[in-house]
Structures are given as structure tokens and as C-alpha cells.
Amino acid sequence: MTTRGGASAALARIDALHSALTELVLEGGDLDRIAAEAARVLDLGVLITSTDGRERASAVSDDLRTALGEAGLVDPTGRVRVERAGADGVPLGTGEARVLRVVAGGTDLARLVACRADGEINQDDVHALERAAAVAALLITREQAVSAVETKYQGDFLRDLFLGRAGDIAYVTGHLASFGWDLNRPNVVVCAEIDPAPADVAGESAQHRQWQERFARAWRQVTRDVGPGIPTADFSSEVVCLLPALERDRVAHDVVRRVVKAVAGDKGGGRRPFTVGVSRVITSLAGLPDAYAQSRRALAIGKKLHGSGSTTFFDQLGVHRLFALVPDSLELREFARDVLGPLAEPTDEAAKARETLQVLLDTNFNVAEAARAQFVHYNTLRYRVSKLERQLGPLSSDPHLRLDVAVALRVLDIS
Questions:
Q1: Which residues, including other chains, have CB under 8 Å from residue 395's CB and lie 6 or more apart?
Q2: Quick one: residue 164, left, alpha or beta (phi over 0 = left, psi -120 to 50 = alpha)?
Q3: Is the pTM of this model over 0.85?
Q4: What 8-state DSSP symbol labels residue 341?
């Protein structure tokens, strides 16, 4: 039981911490200083993270970081698994870790993670940490208000660059310098889009907006870790950034995959899955509009070919790259219908016929091999081939017809 003297001392410590933190904010202090002051006064480790556990500030010793990892509270990308620890605390060796919500005006802003290597975090500590969380909420709210204006302005300018309407080169160069963006190097345009939840209607729900804002913050934080001068913008339904790349495609792909992995983490903490499209490497501002279009097209085609959660590079689309360059998608669909006739219809019978046709194309019309691949009798497949040739023409003997059919099937993949 806490004595009256002990309670007074604890209350005095809480008030002193609150006053010190408030003064820090008024002096222009940041989250790192808030974490450091709380850690010093309470003699424990403190991290301030995003709501899904991405670290934003810390005052934690190497030993405590090791203990957090050994307790399974940090994933391989460094994300703190805040969903595994709550206000009631979880064991941390012989000590304890607790997670407090940082909230303002009913909005979930961040998480404050407190950890002690030897001993519990008592209620007096929790009360003090709640004060620290309140001050952190004040600072984060202020930062978000300023950031919202800056990112909106930067996003509008980046969109103008992609649309080729940003202005003359002197104007563009001046703005790039003021933003600290470096586009005098090879880059790839990366377009990332949250995969919709089953109940999310057209991406217009308030929940979707919260996901989008958190998603954009994650991309900005990860790209800052990659290097300075990386433009990153939230375009409401997508996040777009320009990642540095060397001329060799392999290196560009490695950079993108590393960033995507860091943003995704282990998909815990309420993170939404997302799909990514990546342009070819560009070396000048003039290539930005085409690169942006390539990234969007790679995203759309990748989602159809590989499903949600995929990362698709425009330069690996094969023949689909050619489709992406055709401005009229209706013309592509008309081509497929002209070549495939009734096999282009959206029926189960047509789908099964297309499946057989694709296997035959994959085996260069080797009927015996195709029969084994489809687990049917040779004569059964011979009958199917005859039926297909009655519908489409002499597939087995006309290589040009087979090419048209193969292309038409690929068009249906993305239609």
C-alpha cells in the first residue's frame, strides 16, 4: 500500500514531468526529447511509435532493445508489435513492457511503449506515462497540422510534374530545391495502393481515409530511412514516390523490394495489405509523365495477373507491356473477341475451353503432353482440339493463328 508520503512524492514527480514536457513542447522540442525526458525521470525505456508500431522516437538502451526482441515484441523489420502488449503489460524477462494509446480528440495518433528490464511498471509510472502521452498527443497534433499543409502542397506539385504541367525548368528546379528533392539521378516511380477491405465501399469510408493516412506516413518514414531527397506523396487513393535507382534494373528492383518489405512489416498492428506498381528507370524530368503512367499500369495489370498484395515491375510485364501502351483498351477487347469468338464469352464453358487452349499453346500443341497435363485421355483431348479448330481455325498447322490466339488470351487476362 502506498504511504501518504510516497503518494505525495509520486504526485510531485508526475507534475514535474508534465511541466518539463510541456516546456519542451513550447520550446519547440520533438518526440525524441519527450521520450528522453520521460525515460530519465521514470528510469525506464520509452518508445513512441505509430499506431501500428513503427518507431518515431526512442530513449531505449541496447539491452532493452534486445529484451524486446527476445520477448517477440519486435518484428524482423524493426516494427514494435504494439498489438501484443497493452496497458496491462506483458513480461519482459524479469521486467515488464506496457503500451499506452496516444489520443487527441478521439483520434488515435500513436503508441507510447514503456519497458523496464527488472521490475514492474507500477501505477504511479502509468499515471506519469499518461501525462507524457497527453503531451506527445499535443506535439503530434501540431506536427500533423503543419505536415498536412506541406504534404498537400508537395503532392500537388508532384502531380503536376507527372502530368507535365509543373511549369518551366527554372520554376521546377527552384521548387525541387526548396523541397529538398533530388531528381538528378536515375529514379523509378512507385505507385502503391491499399487493397480494399470487403466492407469498404469505393474507398470512401472514414476508416479507409485513416488507413490511407497511416499508409502514406509509413511510406514517408521508410523512404526517409532509404536516403534524403526522395519525393513521396499521398494522392488520396494511392501513395506515389520516386525511389533512387542505378541504371541496372536489378539494383532498382532490390531497392523497391526492400522498401515494400519495410512498409509491410509482418502485416501486424492493423496494417492493410497493398499492391505496388513500378515504372522503368528514368534519368530526366521529361520521363516522369510516362513513368507515372507505367507504374499505374503495372499496378493494375499486376493486380489482375497476380492478385492483391503483389509488386509488379513494368519492365517484367512481357507482352503486357505492349498492351499497356495501347491507349484504347476497348480496341484490345475487340481484338480478343474477333480472334476467340465464342471463347471470349464470360461463361464456364468458354473458360474451360480457354484453359484447354492455353495448355495446348504451352505444350506447342503436343496433344499427348497436353492430355497428361490436364489428366484426360488422349482421344478426349483430340476431340477437344477438333472442336477448337472448328471454332477458331487450323490452330495445329497455322503458327500465325496460334500467335493471335496466344495474344488474345493474354488480353483477356487483364480485361
A1: 357, 360, 365, 385, 388, 389, 401, 402, 405
A2: left
A3: no
A4: G
Measured between alpha carbons, how far apart are the two ends of the chain, in Å? 70
Please report, for residues 18, 26, 36, 137, 173, the alpha-carbon distance to residue 41 in angstroms, rounded to integers and kept in the order given: 11, 19, 9, 19, 47
Domain boundaries of the chain, sorted by first residue: 4-144, 163-324, 329-414
Contact 118, 94 (CB under 8 A): yes
Domain 163-324 part of CATH 3.40.50.1260:
no
Give, for all 415 residues of the chain, the pLDDT tens digit: 445 455 566 666 667 677 777 777 666 678 888 888 888 888 899 999 988 888 889 999 988 999 999 898 988 888 888 888 877 888 888 889 999 999 988 788 899 999 998 888 888 888 888 888 888 888 888 887 877 777 888 888 888 888 888 878 888 888 888 888 888 888 999 999 998 765 554 445 677 777 888 888 889 888 888 888 899 988 888 999 999 887 555 667 888 998 998 888 776 666 788 999 999 999 888 889 999 999 998 998 888 888 888 999 998 887 777 776 676 778 888 888 888 888 888 888 888 989 998 899 888 888 899 888 888 898 898 898 898 888 888 988 888 888 888 888 888 877 6
Is 4-144 a domain of CATH 3.40.50.300? no
CATH of 329-414, one of 1.10.10.2840, 1.20.140.10, 3.40.718.10, 1.20.1250.20: 1.10.10.2840
Q: How far is CA 222 from the centre of its chain?
A: 10
Give SS3 for 387. Answer: helix
Angle (nearest 5°) at CA 209 between 205 and 214: 145
